[in-house]
Specification:
Shape: globular
Structural class: alpha/beta
Radius of gyration: 19 Å
Number of strands: 14
Strand content: 25-35%
Distance between the termini: 14 Å
Length: about 290
């Protein structure tokens, strides 16, 4: 028996309860992982509120963590007890001290990457990777605008795009966050909420996440004014195969190792205080990444 957070009904942070959790032994194709650090993402808030649906209630929230393999089930190859691994998406239930996971959803964490960094980085880093390299390939000479430039994904987008040679414009909500965005490679920072009007002719708008709520509908006629392109991508469509997952995660970790990406883990909370972490996140009291420590 281990401890974890369980949600019995949808609602505010107060519905998150600290309880005993039965783990069991890994089955075919599974491994058991003891978490060292657990990433918090805004998608966790939407599952808790019922905006996104879980397969059942009660449920254990969380889609990202880094830990150590403590048991390996039948049929698993390439993983052994003691391996440091991480996962981001593809499984629910990371807000717990120990859990069972599909082995094919795990990625190896290099020894040079701290577990707290890995847990805070993987989902956001892989999101930044596919947005900059696959959804629209950002290159030297491009100009991009990043909303919420001081947030977890925004910070990585600004750093990475700058390294690729793009001119980076960031929008933020406060002067403090503007300073951080400049440190992260924004050439221009503004306190502003933008729209399609900021795009040039044949410009691209990539809408991802919804930390500010569900996006407003956009009529197709609004795109024709400047022959604009609009897409609403999802990370898991870009890491659908094992090879895509490993390639994406490997590139993220490699860019941390060589200093292209600096990860700001600005806030850590004990796992038992996950409700407080959610409250602070929703009330915009955080910047950068937020991590739970079991």
């Amino acid at each position: 028996m281990v401890k974890g957070i369980r949600v019995h009904k949808h609602g505010g942070p107060e519905v998150m309860k600290w309880e005993d959790v039965e783990v069991g032994e890994p089955k075919e194709g599974q491994v058991r992982v003891k978490n060292k650090a657990i990433g918090i993402n805004f998608i966790d808030v939407y599952f808790r509120k019922g905006v996104y649906k879980t397969s059942s209630i009660p449920y254990i929230p969380g889609v990202e963590a880094c830990g150590v393999v403590t048991a390996v089930g039948p049929g698993v190859t390439g993983r052994q007890v003691g391996d440091v691994v991480a996962f981001a998406g593809g499984a629910m239930g990371s807000y717990v001290e120990e859990l069972i996971l599909p082995a094919n959803k795990l990625v190896p964490v290099p020894p040079s990457i701290d577990s707290t960094v890995a847990a805070s980085l993987l989902l956001k880093g892989m999101t930044a990777q596919f947005l900059l390299h696959r959804c629209f390939k950002v290159q030297h000479g491009h100009t991009i605008l990043v909303h919420a430039a001081a947030g977890g994904v925004g910070s990585l987008l600004c750093q990475w795009a700058n390294a690729l040679g793009a001119t980076v414009i960031g929008t933020v909500s406060t002067q403090e966050k503007a300073s951080q965005a400049k440190e992260d490679g924004c050439h221009h920072v503004i306190i502003y909420k933008g729209s399609l009007r900021c795009l040039k002719f044949r410009g691209y708008m990539v809408s991802f996440g919804q930390s500010s709520g569900a996006p407003d509908p956009v009529p197709l006629s609004a795109l024709s004014v400047k022959s604009l392109f609009l897409t609403r991508p999802t990370l898991f469509h870009y890491t659908a195969t094992r090879d895509e997952l490993l390639e994406n995660a490997g590139e993220v970790f490699a860019n941390v190792d060589k200093g292209t990406l600096r990860v700001r883990v600005n806030h850590t909370y004990p796992l038992s205080e996950a409700a407080l972490a959610h409250s602070d996140l929703e009330n915009r009291k955080t910047s950068g990444s937020v991590v739970l420590i079991p």
